[in-house]
Amino acid sequence: MTAAAVDTAAAKRAARPFAPFEWMVAFRYLRARNAQKSISVIAGFSFLGIVLGVAALIVVMSVMNGFRHDLMEKMIGLNGHMFLQGIETPLTDYDAVAERVGKVPGVTLALPLVEGQAFATTQYGSAGALVRGVKGQDLERLPGVAGHITQGSLDGFDRGQGLAVGAKLAERLGLRVGDNVTIIAPHGAETPFGVTPRMKAYPVAAIFQIGMSTFDNTFIFMPLAEAQTFFNEEGQANVIEVYVQNPDDMDAMRRRIEPAQQRPMIDTDWRQLNRSFFDVLAVESNVMFAILALIMLVAALNIISGLIMLVQDKGRAIAVLRTMGATRGAVMRIFLITGATIGVVGTFVGLILGLLVAYNVEPIRRFLMWMTGQNLFPSEFYFLSQLPSRVEPTDVAAVVGLALALSIAATIYPSWRAAKLDPVEALRYE
């Protein structure tokens, strides 16, 4: 190959978009010089703003997703996804209805229960409780209880007339497995003098801890037959709770379950009972996303101001590049690379930092509690015993995409302004 051909090939490589020459000049402009300290400071704050904005958004969205997932799993997982209540006639055929509904595709469990408010008391204290009568085989399959037994066992639950008590309630009442607790129901036997409260002592067969303070502090499970007698519901159930594989597709499940009931019933699902609660969580998540996105917007504005100052400072250098043959497109791409580098590097540093924090939220919380001596996440207020975090790839992709879009968009005007610079005017007074 001749020298002329080599020179021509080199010229073509240098002339193509985003050539090494453009990257070299762009990276030189990123380096701090004594005369460019103010520009470097602005670039540093822009970089820091992008990092903090991306990291904060990933952490906050992960915690909000964790809250929603854990609350749904615990609240709905213990209460069921759909509730069937008998109308016109008492629900005496609960076993047959539960068996038919349990065979519907997509249904994982259908259990009849008797539920009533009661008062639990021991020599160490007393507290209100929600007593649920269930069959032992159903209790062992209940998602929120079976795998969370901390003391005792559910073996022989139906035969022993023992109770399964929430851990926080047991702690308040000073109960351990084998101790007796007295349950008092306001509606007992009818006498000539009116209805008298019903009172009976039961042994504690098991203690469970779901991890949600509201349930651990309230729930008591009793054998179904005993609950029917205790609450004057002989031979019938209050409700049939239905658990499904996909709680977010309740409309389709309702259409499948209704034909299997074969009797008049009122159908209620978890969305109707908890709609306002989860709507509030969704609103909070969207508002937090919008607020924290402002951090990245401010950082993007800093990129604009920093690049405009850089263009003004490099006016003579731009004019020299133009006179040496650099096109307007090449000048524009140089400043695009300069500004976008701040945003892209800041985005990926923020991504790594955000994921590290999001995956270690609970250890960080415990460390801060140890450092400050303060309870930073009281379970009685937040329903959960530990700070949840659930990283959703779609949310992470949205945050990264937003940060990259803002960073690149912020470079367009300053780069266009640099490309429009007239070399004659720039060199006139030099």
Automatic annotation (TrEMBL):
Keyword line: Cell membrane, Lipoprotein, Membrane, Transmembrane, Transmembrane helix, Transport
Principal localisation: membrane
BP GO terms, sorted: lipoprotein localization to outer membrane; lipoprotein transport
Domain MacB-like periplasmic core residue range list: 46-259
Pfam entry (one): FtsX
Transmembrane segments: 38-64, 287-311, 332-361, 396-416
Membrane topology type: Multi-pass membrane protein
Annotated compartments: Cell membrane
Superkingdom of source: Bacteria
Protein biosynthesis in keyword set: no
ABC3 transporter permease C-terminal domain residues: 290-423
One cellular component (GO) term of this entry: plasma membrane protein complex
Family named by the database record: Belongs to the ABC-4 integral membrane protein family. LolC/E subfamily.
PANTHER family membership: LIPOPROTEIN-RELEASING SYSTEM TRANSMEMBRANE PROTEIN LOLE
Designated name of the protein: Lipoprotein-releasing system permease protein
Taxonomic lineage: Bacteria, Pseudomonadati, Pseudomonadota, Alphaproteobacteria, Hyphomicrobiales
